[in-house]
Design goal:
The protein is of the alpha+beta class and 147 residues long. The chain has one domain. It is 23% helix and 34% strand. It has four helices and ten strands. Strands 1, 2, 3, 4, 5, 6, 7, 8, 9 and 10 form a ten-stranded antiparallel sheet that branches. The protein starts with a strand and ends with a helix.
């Protein structure tokens, strides 16, 4: 997996978990054409809430993401993402992706939280323990403009 200067269908984003027994270093967001259309429609729907000072965010079900960790991933993430970057386009082969470790238990309730300003964050929960997994916040509008 390598960082790409050009848009790709995969974004590597920093991620974390509340689990004390495992660590999650990153997640991969899958940017399909249908995902981009759906995100644009969601951003448009949220636009009407910009003037409401009490509005926090809308939460959508969205499983266009996978959380990962594997030996040596901290170095890999640091190599691809400098400290000031939260996400990057990456080239990712299926063979490389198969080497990444998944969380120990299945994840459920994949959510995408979007604020009125287009700032987003993915969350998911472990099926049996409800441990939380989340990504760094990122700007969906900037992502769609770049893609």
């Amino acid at each position: 997996m390598k960082r790409s200067k050009n848009p790709t269908p995969h974004i590597l984003i920093k991620a974390n978990t509340s689990s004390a027994w495992e660590s999650i270093e990153f997640a991969i967001i899958y940017l399909t054409e249908s995902w981009k259309v759906l995100i644009a429609s969601r951003l448009q729907a949220i636009e009407q809430f910009k003037t409401d000072d009490d509005f926090n965010c809308h939460i959508f079900w969205d499983a266009s993401i996978r959380f990962y960790n594997s030996p040596g991933t901290r170095e890999l993430v640091n190599e691809i993402l400098p400290p000031h970057d939260d996400w990057a386009y990456v080239t990712l082969s299926p063979e490389t992706e198969r080497t990444f470790q998944h969380p120990n238990h299945p994840l459920q309730a994949h959510q995408l939280l979007i604020t009125a300003n287009g700032i987003a964050q993915y969350k998911a929960y472990e099926k049996r323990t409800n441990k939380e997994y989340w990504t760094e916040e990122f700007n969906l509008k900037k992502l769609l403009r770049a893609h």
